[in-house]
Each structure stands twice: as structure tokens, then as C-alpha cells.
What we know:
- The complex is a heterodimer.
- By secondary structure, chain A is mainly beta.
- Chain A contains 1 helix and 18 strands.
- Chain A has one helix spanning 4-17; strands spanning 49-60, 72-87, 90-103, 110-113, 117-126, 130-132, 145-154, 182-191, 196-206, 210-211, 217-219, 223-237, 242-255, 259-260, 263-264, 270-283, 286-300, 313-324.
- In chain A, a hairpin with a 2-residue loop joins strand 14 and strand 15.
- Chain B has one domain.
- In chain B, strands 4, 7, 8, 9, 13, 14, 16 and 17 form an 8-stranded mixed sheet that branches. In chain B, strands 1, 2, 3, 5 and 6 form a 5-stranded antiparallel sheet that branches. In chain B, strands 10, 11, 12 and 15 form a 4-stranded antiparallel sheet that branches.
- Chain A binds chain B through residues 21, 25-27, 29-31, 45-46, 88, 127, 134-141, 143, 238, 241, 285, and chain B through 1-7, 9-10, 156, 173, 175, 179-185, 188-192.
Amino acid sequence: MKRLFAILLWSPALALAHHGVAGVGAAALEGPGAPLESASSTVLPAGKTLLYAKLDHAKFKTYDPDPTAPESDYANYWMVGVGHGFTPWFSAYIFAPYHAKIDEPGGLDSKGWADLSVMGQIGFKYDNGFSLVPANESLDDQEDWHFTVFGGGTLPTGNANHRLAGGTIDPGKAHGFGKNSLSLGVTATKQLSRDLTFNLEASAIRFREYTYDDGNRVKFGTENRLNGSLSYRLHTNPDSRFRVDGVLEAQYLALGRDIENGVGATATGGKMLYLVPGVRLYKDNMSFAFGFKKPVWTRLNESSQQQGAEGKEKYRLIFSASILF
Amino acid sequence: MRLLPLFAILLTCTAQAHDLWLAKDGKHLTLYQGHRHSGHAGAETMAYGSNFVTANRCVDERGAARPLAVVGTSPWTASGDCAALRLDISSGYWSKTPWETKNAPKNETPGAIKSWLSKENLKRLERWSPAFVQPLGHGLEILPASDPFALKPGDKLVVVVVKDGKPVTGAPVAYHGDPRGETDPDGRIAIRLRHGGLQLIATSLELPLKDGKADVEILASTLQFEIRP
């Protein structure tokens, strides 16, 4: 079973966390930078709302030239979301993903809205002791270590029993997990210098078993990730309220084996490391991120059978935009 | 509140395009204005008129007035044993036309498109006293929330910006000319002291003026002290 569905449903939500103000506010000019995809330790200012959109285009390696055996060609993972800062230290988000999974000609494509996801985020900092993020921080305060704890999950709003053109159900191409998933993560962020910011994220997702209409039971494997990033301010133009950061992210992902009808499924799970170089632009109250993501190290469980899964991408192109008001 | 107003900070701080500081030479303190201690472009020191300093207040650790002998006005120079010294300063009215900026009120400046009255003050702390968490005078002023002389480079100092003794919300605060943020509803902001020696923390405030001579009144205040390297 191709396993791309689960991870991507959640990862855009994580990406949102960094969009707090770092990506949009005046910190865009002077304050800490933000990763491209990972969660960071910035929460939304109280009373502020964030709108977000993202496209993750994944192009897969193909191995079999036989046109009668089509493989996964590419996938587009769209995401729109909204977040709100309820207090200076607590933000909440909701996201709606739309997925298009396209096979080579003759394959079975799948397109549709997937499960909604929700996330809550608590921000705190260390400045001679731990405290919740205050309402007002100077640029010097923002140089302190900042942290967040975030948690949430997906809601079973998508059609888990979506049938492909042939009438079959492929959980890897379904529009939902059938049951909610749960996630938990932490972040740590430190502005190392006026221009350089370090960010770390560790998070995990757990799924529940669901019985599909065709009688099969599937429980997706666990997802654990550890992401680190450095962002460096390359250019600032205060007159036009414009800033450009160069960003390099390293993303380690460990996927557990799926369980199908109580048995570990072959061709699922593994470990991989992605590198994601890119840029983040800030203009007024908007932020834009562009990244090129590529697996640089993989240890998949049955690598030769996992075409179209995580770790088997030729590349991924990531674009996101957000606005805070 | 937390981050968005930085642009306002940048704009407002341009109103204070120079630094003020007192240099100690033996028993004498001399007032300078210029750009020696900030990253601003411009002359290291700039001359000013003999009526630049409009008032002074020299106090001891209890906040009681101490005598101050003024021995010069341009540059302003004085001697006295002041635990804290505040100077009130004004360069008067200014008017901007499409061609130039003049040191004159708008009613005397044909073609004025913008005008302001400049009022500044500089407070230099020689020694610490708990009395100095209170203002030395009226108008805009920066108060340390704790003993700044106990700090070392890299530490943060919380300061409180007040106007007529009341906290000012949203006041931009700069460290050696570099905007670092705005004050919270209690007038407080934390500023990191990035080096030893002379420390200059400044704020400014723009208020409407209806005296017929200027559009606005620009209040600026600087806190000066020194820490060990």
C-alpha cells in the first residue's frame, strides 16, 4: 500500500505553526526567521488571524517502463487553513486539505478533499526561568529561547471509502482515515544572531484502525519526525517592508509499518532524511515560502516495492503563502 | 501589539535623527549631540545653540536637588556631584518645505508642508538609587526598573517609559539608535545591553500641537549610563 497519504495530511498543519508572526509581522524585518515546512516556536499575536495556503507537489521516481503497469506519477497536496491567536501564548488552527494523486496513464487517479485537521499550540519561553509567551516582546526578548507544545489531529470528514475508477478501495488513495488521528509535538527556536535563526521540531502522529466498506481493516503506521533548520536573513528593505531569508531544513522521518487485517503490511514504512533548501519572503503582512525537497538518505522497509511512497520522490516542490490581519 | 508595530518604530525613531549624550572629563560633564554612539550616518558631533539646554536637574541618591555649576552653554558644560542629572533640551520649531528644512515655525515659513516642535531630554545616571525608578521631571522619560549598573554586556534591562509620570503604551524604544520594540501597556520593555561602557536608550513620542506654529510636538527622551565591559 502506498503510504503517502497520511503524512501529508498532517505535515501542512505543522508547517502552519511557524507562520505565527515570524512569517508575517514586523519581525519579518528584524526578528527571528522561520523554517519552510517545519513547525517553529512562534505563536499568533492575540486577536490576530492568519490565512494560509500551501501546495506540495511530489514527483515520484518510476522504475517500470511497461505501460500496462502504471506507477504513481505525481501528487499535488493543497492545503488551506485559518489560525487565530486567542491569547499571546495560545493559537488554534483548522486546515482543509485537497489531494490529487495521479498515476501514469492507465492508472487509478484520486482527487478530493481530505480529512480536516485541527491544532492547538501553546507558546512559552526561557528568560531566567520558563514563562508563557507575553503579549509584548521586544526584539531582544525574541532572541531568547522560545518553545511550543502543539497537539491536535484529523477529523474523519473525508471519504475513507472513496472508490477508484475500478470500483476498488485503496486506503492509500482514500480521502480520509476513517477515524481521527492524534498528534503531539514540541519545538525550540533560538535566534543565534541578528540574521541567523535555529529551529528544531520533534513530533509524532498516531493512527487508529479503521474497517473499510470492503471489509479490510487498516491501521497506518506511526509517524515520528525530527526536523532542524537554519534561516539566514539575506536582504532587508525597510522602505518597502520586504525581507528575504535563505533557509535550509533537514527533515528526518520514521514511518512505522502499516497493519492490514492485523498483520504487518509489506512495502510500507521506513526511515528517511530530506533536505529542503529554499527561500522565505516577507512583504508587509504576508509571507511566502519556496522550497525544493529531496530525499538524501532512505532506509525503506521494502524499498524495491515502495514506488510512490515517502522516500521515493524524485523531488518535491513546496510553496506556501500566508497573511496575518 | 507584539510585533506588527515595528514599522511605526522605524518611522518614529527617525524623528530622533541624532543622539544626545554627556561626556565626563574630570569634574566636568559636557553635552554632545551627533552620531558617535549610533549606527546613524552623519557627523560624529554637531554644534548647537547657546539656548539649547532649557533646564537642568541634578539630584543625589535620595532624589534631593544638588547644586550644579554651569560653566558653558555651547557646548553645555557643568560640574556637580549628581547621582542623576536630567537636561531638558529644545531646538525649537522646525518646518519642512519642498526645498529645505528650516529651524523656524510654520507661520514664518512660506510653503511649509510639515512642521514640528522639538522637545528632548537626556538623563544620565552616575550611580544607582531605588529613587531612580521615579521620574526626575515632567514630560517623557525613561526609567530603569532595576539597577542597571549591576548588569553586564548581554544582560537585559527592563525600562519603563512614562509621560508626566504615567506609563506610555506603544512607545518605540531604541538602543544606540537601533529600534528594539514598543512598550507594553505598563510602559515596559526589555532592552539587551550589547556592550560595555556607554549605554544610550532612547524613545520618542509625537503629539498633535495646536499653537499655530507647528503641526506636532515631538518629544524624545534618552537614558544614559555606563556598565563595565
